[in-house]
Write a structure and sequence with these properties.
Elements lengths: L3 E10 L2 E11 L4 E5 L6 H9 L5 E8 L2 E2 L5 H6 L2 E4 L6 E5 H12 L2 H12 L9 E2 L5 H15 L3 E5 L7 H14 L5 E6 L12 E6 L2 E6 L1 H19 L14
Parallel strand pairs: 3-10, 3-11, 6-9, 9-10
Antiparallel strand pairs: 1-2, 1-4, 4-5, 7-8, 11-12
Helix pairs in contact: 3-4, 3-5, 4-5, 5-6
Length: 252
């Protein structure tokens, strides 16, 4: 059984066929990285896994053997799936302390214990009485999201564009937190454009997505090769022609 099991996943948005026959396994205890340029479908994979409305999804997607596609968003979270968003949303009127308390009430007192550790580890105690993500910098928002993640200790964590909007120091701090939270009962999928965050992560496997397909998977050396040849070089190597990408698709 894997933390995340995706098999033959197809995703459409209206007439757009965005993801095609995606196969992806993340075993418990491992950290995988999904890389790809804008418009390749990385964020769409996140949306499909979390159950964002508007997408037509077929295939298999499961966390710890529990089917996701037949569940609503709350049900997918209850199954153990957690997403750290590329652009964390602001929730005026709800403090981080309120949110952590609700998590503990829903899941159990162990959440409060882990939350206390996370608040100290990530230096987010000062956010407890502030509305979630309101008035925070990009790096602070990521730390707030990571605090929630460490408190919940889900079965599968998907970190969408973990390093987006972060300076070098913030990237290192967040990556250090990711490494600290790893344990045998959780899988982690980090989604990113760049290899810079990989400097601070012990990566088990790298997957590369182009044009809605996972075109190559391998070890850490694959990320290093991608850094050297770029996505255009990879595209030529695997025999794909550069498509004309509609600007709308760059955010998918």
């Amino acid at each position: 059984m894997n933390a995340l099991q995706v098999s033959g996943l197809d995703v459409r948005l209206g007439d757009l066929h965005i993801l095609r026959a995606i196969d992806l396994e993340v075993p418990f205890g491992e950290l995988h990285v999904l890389m790809g340029p804008n418009g390749s479908g990385k964020s769409t994979l996140c949306h499909a896994l979390m159950g964002r409305p508007g997408y037509e999804v077929s295939g298999v997607a499961a966390v710890g053997g529990v089917d996701l596609l037949g569940r609503d968003i709350a049900g997918r979270a209850a199954a153990g799936l957690f997403e750290v968003f590329q652009y964390p949303v602001e929730i005026p009127g709800v403090t981080l302390g309120d949110l952590l308390a609700e998590m503990a009430a829903a899941v159990g007192p162990e959440v409060a214990v882990r939350a206390a550790i996370a608040l100290e580890q990530l230096d987010t105690a000062g956010f407890v009485d502030r509305s979630v993500n309101v008035g925070l910098s990009g790096g602070e928002k990521k730390r707030s999201e990571m605090t929630q993640l460490l408190a919940l200790a889900p079965r599968m964590a998907v970190l969408d564009e973990l390093d987006s909007g972060l300076d070098v120091d913030a990237v290192r701090d967040v990556a250090t937190a990711v490494e600290a939270m790893r344990h045998p009962g959780m899988g982690v999928l980090v989604i990113t454009h760049y290899t810079r965050v990989l400097r601070y992560l012990e990566v088990d496997r790298v997957h590369v997505m182009l044009d809605g397909h996972i075109v190559e998977s391998g070890g850490r050396a694959l990320a290093d090769r991608l850094d050297a040849e770029g996505y255009d070089g990879l595209r030529r190597r695997v025999g794909l022609v550069q498509p004309d990408v509609d600007p709308f698709l760059k955010g998918l």
